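Field: sequence (string)
Field: structure_tokens (string)

Example rows 1 and 2, in order.
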Amino acid sequence: MTDTPASPRCTDVVFDFCGVLIDWQCAACLRGHLPDALVERICADDDPYGFFHYEDLMDRGQDFADVLARYRDEFGDDMARIFDYYIRHYGDALPRLVPGMRGLLEDLHAAGTGVWGLTNWSHETFPVAYERFPRLAELLDGVVVSGVEKMHKPNADIYELTLRRFGLDAARCLFFDDTAANVEGARAIGMPASRFTDAQSAREELVSLGALPAHRA
């Protein structure tokens, strides 16, 4: 009987940003500046005013000025002024780090595990993340930003670029994202991935994979 070889130890962890490292809240930027009912409609899952769709175009590498012009054509001047306000005050949509994640990143560093970022984010608004949370820039060994690369999760090319750029072995990585499609995109190119729910669950999984010592759990 042949023993099944053990899975390789996880040596590098790749994190999505919004919903994993940073608590992104569109409504936090708009509340207090607009009627609550309008804020709720703008931020609804069915995206009736197109904020998420047009922000996604920016995440894919399109410039804000071009996106805003297209937004105005579809939704008119009044909504375009609101979308413009949202993008120009983007830091207000990032109220805090996800609870427990700063400590998790610090513990991974202390354990000698690589810590990386892979995010769908506009090249124009991504710098706001580091302005709001400068410690993130210190804790991440490198980041791939979709709007800079003009690549976009869950397409294979952005995961493959991340592995090449940072010299990572896919089999020794774990990727965390809060979006199921992005998790599947990583798995499709051979990178183990998990759907993020909270810092404690992520920590427990990383302990089980050898990326953190058990006594830190």
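Row 2 begins here:
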Amino acid sequence: MTLHAALAAAATLVSLAFALSTLDRWIDRRRRHEAAWTAALFMFSIASAALWCGAALGWNEVSFKVFYLFGAILNVPFLALGTVYLLGRPRTGDRWALVVSLLGAFCAGLVVSAPLVAPIEADALPRGAEVFGVGPRIAAAVGSGAAAMVIIGGALVSAWRLLRTGRRSAAGDVPRSPVPPRRLALANLLIAAGTLVLSAGGLLNSVLDEMDAFAVSLVVGIAIIFGGFLLTATPAALTPPQPWYPPGGQREAPPETPTGLSPA
């Protein structure tokens, strides 16, 4: 297995684990921002799997369009939608969810129907500027650029609020978290840093091979964001000790311990 195929496989597995974690939280809490993140991360997993397939088996039109659609256009806007839900009001998030969903459906049709203006080489990651016309490239620029700014700006504002006031905004559908404010602030900064890594993946082309550059940015970026997500996890609440009852059902004093003292 080549290096870029191994890195793409790692990005697929990390993003899939991340998606399953957010899915588990959404099933448990039913919060809108976690639903948006779950959708985005499954899209990220699909894009990483397409990169893995292209690197291992050779690129073709199908694998590149799947990678381009889910990796360069759709997943970052849905991550940004999670930020909107997290920091804004539910009604505002619902409106943006409709906008993002409609634009996502339009972009999916645009990429699927877009003709290729140049042949795709099987042994190298194609560039959108070389094989696509204007439409898919504009969709990728807006989807990755504008949405990334929402994520980074939201994470920085949230971290600043936490460090300054010690509490998060109550505007969204998320109740105050039991996680310490400094820990939440660090989590937000990690999310912003990971998003920057993902957005700047193309810059690595000047240092590494193209396929390696994208794979490195995917692995590092998603791992940093996953680390920020894990920092927001709260330990399971401890179950308080229950009073002791005898088999007959009447409450009595608990049995003595070997030392003669009642347990605390």
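free_text_note (row 2): Residues 168-174, 236-242, 251-264 have pLDDT under 50 and may be disordered.
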